[in-house]
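Today's session is about reading a structure prediction critically. Students often jump straight to the picture, but the first step is always the sequence itself: look for stretches that repeat, for charged clusters, for runs of hydrophobic residues. Only then move on to the predicted structure, which in these notes is written as discrete structure tokens rather than atom positions. Here is the chain we will use throughout the hour.
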Amino acid sequence: MTRRLGSLLTTPFALMVLVCLAIVGWSAWTGGFFDDAVERHVRTSSFYAAPGVEVDREAAERIIGDRKLVVIMLEPNSDSDELRERCSGDWNAAANTLMLVLSQGEDEYDQYTCSHLPGAYEENFGKSYVAETVIASGIDQFADRPLDALKVVVVNYDLLVGSDTLPDGVREFDAPVGRYVVAGATVVAVVIGTTVAYLGARRVGRVAARRAADREASGDARSRLSAASASLAQQIIELDRLYESVRRSLRRSEKERRAFERKYRAIVSEYTRLGQSVVRFDGEGQDANWLTGRVEELSERCRRLAATVPAR
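Below is the predicted structure for this chain, in token form.
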């Protein structure tokens, strides 16, 4: 009996069945079959908030947009070990992202950051350390306003991208359905023949080629928009500093201070609306060029307003 079983396992058909079972197991593991609630959520979203956190989740997702950034807000006053365990580990659901885990305290955030970008703790260890240190800077002053804290995180992220500390580009969401289809197609190909696999591969190849062509066509426009947005974010931060300086200045008249404040608030309002348009950007080259023009125009307004404040 043992000899017959051993000879059966060595047949080509049995070996193919074992290979298929291995592929199915790999697909289930990497596709999210064993994920918990948080992992399943961030597989297709960049923001997760625990049930006890009071925050507009849809607004938070819009603020992060398609950046390679994942923010998880656990229950208030969560233990630091829980933050560290949630952030570290093998995160298939948030691969190629910078992850920030937060917990609201009484007057500050407990936070833990870890990079899941390629080579984060190998050849890019220095950049990963800087990113993990900088990404949450300045959020404690918004301990009771999580959306404002998230805006600060996004500005920090854009600055890190602009300084080449983090890689540019958008996050590609990898839904588990595709992996289940691949596993099912493999089993079907073994059972009913290579014809179905051949036709399916041709169809997948055409779709992949079309998407690759679309990404290549819009790549330059997207890169230009990303660079312009990072530069504009830096200018807005500089204007914030100048605004406080002008507001406290005794050398300027009340009329001059009000004129500066009016222009400053108009620029910030336009930046907020423009940021929403950038978040909703769908990757079309024409829209990217139009948005880039608006970003560059607003950057020029920032430069003109900053030039009205003499350097010390």
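Discussion point for the tutorial: Residues 194-248 form the longest helix (55 residues).
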